[in-house]
Amino acid sequence: MAGIDHAPPPFFKQGPAPLALLTFYLAVSLAIFVVDLRFQSLELLRQSIALVVDPVQRVAQTPGSLVDYAASYLQGMRALQQENNELKHTQLTTAPNLQRLAQLEVENERLRKLLSVKEREKANGQVTQILYTARDPFSRKIIVDKGQQAGIVAGQPAIDETGVVGQVTRVFPFSAEITLITDKDQVVPVQIVRSGQRSIVFGLGNGQLELRYMPANADIQVDDVLVTSGLDGIYLPGFPVARVVNIERDNAYSFARIFCVPIAGVENFGEVMVLDARQPLPPAPPASAGRPGGSDQPELRGRSKKTASKGN
Amino acid sequence: MQPTFSSSRILQPVRPWFIVFSLIGAALLNFLPTAHWPGVPDWVALVLCFWCIREFRRVGMGWAFVLGLLMDVADGAVLGQHCFAYVLLAYTASSLSRRILWFPLLQQALQVLPLLVATQVLQALMRLAVGADFPGWGYFIGPVIATLLWIPLTFILLLPQYRPVEQDPNRPI
Fold first, then answer.
1. Contact flag A6-B13 (C-beta cutoff 8 Å)
2. Per-residue confidence at B167, pLDDT binned at 50, 70, 90?
3. How many Cβ pairs within 8 Å bridge chains A and B?
4. Could you tell me which of A33, A41, A154, A197 has the fewest CB atoms within 10 Å of its CB?
């Protein structure tokens, strides 16, 4: 270096060659990239780094939240009164349904017992505050303020007051990451309310969702509402997910292209409710049950084991 | 060390804690909620590039790797994405350092622009290759804004080195 430095430049002790170092670091980076993407086995590393980064990140978010707070503080009495009146009004309009809900649930439970149908699972959960949206511009994720400490595990669904928002994908000690349903290729199994038809809705990454693998002549209309079907064992059935906005039927393809928008305020800030993990679904019947041929080998083995144990 | 090699002004040697401080400051700037606005530069990449050019013996690929890991976790991105891009940036910046420092600041900025653009494009390519969503063109404006900030950034980050050690009016330089 041409300048004056206190220490003389190390002429002979230079460490490994820059190109060797570069190769090493690039190889390590690529290895981490592939392992994290394909095998998701680096969560411990991520969690330990997040333990350091997360508090700093929360502090960095305070200016924004202070501005929000100041804005709402200065909003004035009139706006608050108006909002209060509106809330009272909506409360009154929903009151008839709410008041009868408890009675309906009891009645539903009794009827289900009479029909000997499995009881409906109750939706319980924890209300969490959205801290910030993840900075990654390639995906749609939000960070909420409860994590392992509050018993949140990856896979739990998250809803807001109108519908499904997303699913918990990563859990850190004091925060959790929720992938929104609009994230690219985020999947929610749904059911069309009007026709009862089951399907799967995929996020497109641009704020819309797409209902895929529906035949071109499927019974579906614009403004149809999609709710969770509950077949996946993750989402409870009946939560609104999306509304159909556009259907492109092209005879050249066997499937219709159906675009939907999320019903929940997916891109909003505020609070979301992380629902508790569902009770595990009953085990699926063995795949080999009705299929004769090569696949009945394990069944035979099982039977022989049973007879063996009987014999003992 | 001089502000540029063609300058006759001689600077004090850099204090290591100031490098650490400025890199942490850059990370904090990255964590701000402004990061979602289009055209906000990647501060860590910019400051890292600056120190790799100015002080390539102190700041190099090791720092780039650690900072990349930090940004990956902070972003919620795939681990290794920032690491890869930053390490390559650090290598290129430090190998071009002897050349870039001969130019005046404006031309330095022009030489830094392709490095920063490459950092951003590389990350986009890595994510798009594995099926992520296109982030929009706003993502690629960041490096251009960062280049415009090169001159003020150089001034700010060299400020602690401008002061002479002892205030002596009869000093020759």
1. yes
2. low
3. 138
4. A41
- A42 chain-B contacts, CB cut-off 8 A: 79
- Closest chain B CA to residue A169: B76
pLDDT tens-digit readout, A164-198: 999 999 998 888 999 999 988 889 999 998 888 89
Asked whether B83 and B48 are in contact (CB, 8 A), the reply is no
Binary contact (B78, A2; C-beta < 8 A): no
**Helix residue spans in B101-164 (DSSP H):** 105-129, 142-148, 150-162
pTM metric for this prediction: 0.79
In the numeric block, the tokens 């749904």 are attached to A190
Enter the ipTM: 0.88
More confident residue, A73 or B130: B130
CA angle, A141 then A144 then A203, to 5°: 25
Q: What tokens does A216 get?
A: 């071109």
Angle A57-B27-B162 from CA coordinates, rounded to 5° = 140
- Helices B43-54 & B105-129 angle (0-180, nearest 10): 130
Chain A hits for B128, Cβ within 8 Å: 138
Q: How many CB atoms lie within 10 A of CB B147?
A: 21
Chain B: nearest CA to A41, how far in angstroms? 11
Q: From residue A127, how far is each of A80, A96, B58, B69 by CA, in Å?
A: 23, 25, 47, 31
Is residue B28 less than 8 Å (CB to CB) from chain A? Answer: yes
Q: Which residues of B touch A53 (CB under 8 A)?
A: 70, 73-74
pLDDT single digits (tens) A88-97: 998 888 888 8
- Token readout for A303 is 């039977």
Q: Does A18 touch chain B (CB under 8 A)?
A: yes
